[in-house]
Amino acid sequence: MAQVRRLEPRPARRGEATVFKAWERFARGEDDLSGVRPEIAISWHRCRDQYRVDPGLAEAPAAVAEVGHALEHDVVFAELGFRAASLVHEVGPLGAIVTITDGTGRVLAQWGDPATRAVAAEANLAPWFCWAEGAAGTNGMGTALLSYTPVLIRGAEHWCQAFHDWTCAGVAVRDVVTRKPVAVLNISCWRGELPASVGSWLGNAATMTQRILRQHAKDDGAELIAAFNHARSASRAPLTVVDPAGRVVLADDTAGVLLGIPGSTPAPDPAVRWKPELPEFIRAAKYACEQAARNPDWAGSTQILTRLAAEPTSISFRPVFLAGHLIGNVVSFGVTEGDPLPRPGDDAPLRAQPHRMVATRDNRMVLLRLPEVAFAQSDGNDVWLSTDQGMLRAASPGLDRLETELGDAGFLRVHRQYVVNLSRIREVERRYKGELFLVMDDQAQTMVPVSRRNAPTVRRALEI
To answer: What is the rounded radius of gyration, in angstroms, for the C-alpha atoms of the chain?
Structure first.
């Protein structure tokens, strides 16, 4: 019989008392978060003010319903299982356990130290229970679902006091097209410490696993190009094919002009697909994919404004499937077929434009009006905002997410590292080789580079 290791109390960590006192104040309704890491402070705000999670919760709730997954996501779970098994050899002797959740925070599998698993079961840290942040507060699995980098949650940083004896580290594996979380790989330790290298382990596991998704996305792109060619043989209307995120894999020359992207230029790789200049088109493409995912026979149409006409242009969407899962849509211009898509003002819910941005400074949350922000710049895993109050770190992780949130609010992606507020551009400088630089009206009059790929979009947006 295997010997079960006894779990012993651990000594208090440096700064743990400070975090616990801040947690007590915040749980009472105060907003003093001195000594709390910004990412934890933001999570606590979500738990208290948005999700209203009871800080006295003692166990995670059962998953409400089983969620279906696409075939390639099942491959991800299998790959993560292989990664988890190798991690157990590293952290098992420390008394840690390794878990995998799906994109909703539902635990699918667990491995590791038997004594720790027994303690975990008391808090429902076990398969078929939900550890999304909205269900169980700040924790390694749920908070990782909302982050683009590995997260580490120590002791009193957990929102629910019953979990303060745990240290958890998690990382989300995200769909390379939609950027939605597919799964989380998490390591948890009860009354113990995780090694400093845990973030590197998790980050490497996520990177290796996402290579599978990237290859699947390339295959999907090739299939969308084939669908384009098939549709072209049966139609003379301007055509394009888009992925579930509304990015263009291929457009003919006419459709390319209407969308403000290069025509007849295939982009099967998700990393280089074309983003149309028309937010209304992207919203319609995403909505079409949501409908087709529920009903494979669905087809729909709507009208959008393009840059070439004063009147709206009709567009229709027809879904494309590969091995039973939706990979995108064929879009025809000047054609009205299928169900009408909701228009602004209809009863269908629309994504509200943000009125503020949230940044952090000295463990405080700073609420910024959009005109106060000149530009956003990515720096590794962080996004920094140039504001009227100086440089502040954005609360939203990832420049892609920020671009999506601000796409309808006068902000534009001009470079892989920059999103700018168009109203804060003071001058445009053209270099001798044709490179464009934007002189911003921030305190430093920063010169923001424009990539060659984004230059046509910038010229059209500024009408230059």
So the answer is: 24
H/E stretch holding 226: helix 198-234
- At residue 461, the pLDDT reads 81
Query: Residue 345: is its pLDDT beyond 50?
Result: no
Q: What is the pLDDT of residues 185-211, one digit of tens each?
A: 999 999 999 998 999 999 999 999 999
* Structure tokens that stand for 418 in this block: 């920059």
pTM of the model: 0.77
Give the Cα separation of 285 and 298 in Å (integer). Answer: 13
Letter for the amino acid at 26?
A: F
Non-local (6+) Cβ contacts of 214 within 8 A are: 176, 270, 271
Write out the two tokens for 345: 């003002």
Strand partners, 328: 320
Given a contact cutoff of 8 angstroms between Cβ atoms, the answer to whether 326 and 244 are in contact is yes
Among the residue ranges 119-133, 168-182, 371-385, the one predicted with the least confidence is 371-385
- C-alpha closest to that of 328 among 280, 279, 277, 267: 267
How far, in Å, CA of 187 to CA of 111, rounded? 10
The Cα–Cα gap between 184 and 174 comes to: 9
Q: How many CA atoms lie within 13 A of 292 on its CB side?
A: 26
Q: What is the pLDDT of residues 72-122, one digit of tens each?
A: 678 889 999 988 888 888 888 889 999 999 999 999 999 999 999 999 999
Closest CA to 419 of 428, 408, 407: 407
Q: Which of 110, 112, 108, 107 is nearest to 89 (CA)?
A: 112
DSSP letter at 130 equals B
* CB 215, CB 114: distance < 8 Å: no
